[in-house]
Design a protein that fits this description.
36% of the residues lie in helices and 16% in strands. It has a single domain, classed as Divalent-metal-dependent TIM barrel enzymes (TIM Barrel, Alpha-Beta Barrel), CATH 3.20.20. It has 289 residues and is an alpha/beta fold. It contains nine helices and eight strands. It has an eight-stranded parallel barrel, surrounded by four helices.
């Protein structure tokens, strides 16, 4: 296994992507995530971006965005697209982001949290993902579904869904923290093995363990937003990487520190301190990247 470590804009709070990219380059990242979701602040919006240079404006020019990333020594290998993709409008949003990935030279597109709906709509969800996967496959793009909730909340439910989707370019981007937050009685180190060939990557993220009890809609357990720096929570990262040592090929791993009560009022430098701490922790447990 070779770790492809990817820096995440989600580790740096709500601020401009160019500042986040600069911090990631300073921290030593070479691969970065590009946020292009439907509802998030400070995301890239392919629908209003042009292909050609536009006076250095990386917000509206794909060429200028590529120049900015190149100057910082950053490679945009993974795009995170959080869109409601059950309907025709959402399908088109995702397709535009597949095209955006191709223009940036990326081959991995995370389609984020799948829409929550009634159990009867699972068939519609399967067909929606199949249509998007076929579009992406024609452009050599792999779709990575984040294991966040509902029918993708753990290895068992994710494997069952992928057995219905039956598309080789659809994999699971396993979220180590949300696995603990939204399920009871599982171990992420067992889950990553259970996914087998369906595992397409990891979100390296820790969970502080604050769960008030009860169930949220669609079967997820209730939890409080509490994602501390790596090594300060409940995820057994040494065990996870030990179980994955024989994983074939490259494994994309997004370092995502979304924080919690401990980082209220953080500055950009404070976020950077936590990122550096996480990188040092990974090295201390023998993770090479």
């Amino acid at each position: 296994m070779r770790i492809q470590l990817i820096g995440s804009c989600n580790s740096y709070g709500l601020t401009w992507p160019n500042l986040q990219f600069e911090k990631m380059a300073e921290a030593g990242f070479r691969n970065v995530e590009i946020l292009c979701g439907q509802y998030r602040m400070h995301c890239f919006v392919p629908e209003v971006m042009v292909d050609e240079p536009w006076y250095g404006s990386w917000r509206v020019s794909i060429a200028d965005l590529k120049t900015l990333l190149h100057q910082l020594g950053l490679n945009p290998i993974y795009l995170l697209c959080e869109c409601d993709f059950l309907g025709p409008f959402g399908q088109e949003l995702v397709k535009r982001r597949v095209d955006f990935a191709v223009k940036l030279g990326a081959t991995l597109l995370g389609i984020g949290q799948p829409p929550k709906s009634t159990p009867g709509s699972v068939h519609g969800l399967v067909r929606s993902i199949q249509r998007l996967a076929d579009y992406a496959a024609e452009r050599n793009v792999t779709l990575l579904i984040e294991s966040l909730c509902w029918v993708f909340r753990n290895a068992e439910t994710s494997n069952a869904m992928l057995s219905r989707i039956r598309r080789p370019n659809v994999k699971i981007m396993y979220n180590l923290a949300h696995a603990l937050a939204k399920n009871d009685g599982i171990k992420p180190e067992d889950e990553v093995v259970a996914l087998g060939g369906n595992l397409g990557g990891l979100f390296l993220k820790d969970f502080g363990g604050s769960k008030p009890g009860g169930r949220a809609p669609y079967g997820d357990t209730n939890y409080n937003w509490d994602f501390p720096p790596l090594g300060d929570g409940l995820v057994d990262f040494p065990a996870v990487f030990e179980r994955l040592k024989d994983f074939p090929g490259d494994l994309p791993c997004v370092l995502q520190l979304e924080g919690g009560p401990h980082n209220e009022g953080y500055s950009l430098d404070d976020y950077q301190r936590d990122v550096r701490k996480a990188l040092a922790y990974l090295r201390s447990i023998g993770v090479e990247f």
